[in-house]
Amino acid sequence: MSYQEKNITVSLFSHLLIGVYYLANLLPIIQSSELVAGRLYALWSIVIAVNIVVNIIASILTNILLTIVEAIRSRKYEDPQFIEDERDKLIGLKGIRSTYFTFSIGVLFSVFAFIYGQPPLMMISLIVLFSILAEIIGDVSKIYLYRRGG
Amino acid sequence: MFQRYTCIEEGVEMGKSQVKNNIRKLRFNHDEMTQEQLAKKVGVTRQTIIAMESEKYAPSLELAFRIARIFSVPLEEVFYYTPEDE
Description:
The complex is a heterodimer.
Chain A: H1 3-31, H2 37-74, H3 86-115, H4 120-148
Chain B: E1 19-21, H1 23-29, H2 35-42, H3 46-53, H4 61-71, H5 75-78, E2 79-81
Antiparallel strand pairs in B: 1-2
Helix pairs in contact in B: 2-3
């Protein structure tokens, strides 16, 4: 498993955790049939902020951990060479394409939900949910492409 | 009414590629050069060399030239194209 694959796996797990947290908080609000704007705004802010922060921290931690593991394995310290070559860039672009495709469908679905009588708060909740789902699908497609092409 | 666009990705296709190569043989003939050594010389990861050797990845023209240069042979001796119908 290459450095990029490990990084994507960590990113996938963090997105899965954020998705579970979001659903665990969103579903009770929907089931109570009372979409309280204050609670939803807080939930969206937390999820979006955590998504950004966790991604940065996860990337840094993965970098540090991999450097340590590599140093222990080779029994000497070398400047880590986590190069990103043309194949990594291509897989990255294909992953982004999957992310945007999923997100576009999600936005379309959310808008249709709004057109067919759902409140605007529900529409935005769905858009946030699909943004997390799109990140997960992007990560899964990247891992799949790495496995298939490597 | 609508213009049709065709998306062409620069000779890179996952799965089995139609661009075949002799990299493994050339490595062997060059003092049994390892995949890691070749990867370092051309500036890619070892995984990319593995993907190329197993013909799952067709490199860009620039990388193909760099590999040919390492082995001091013309490009056609490293890579060759086999159309699907052949």
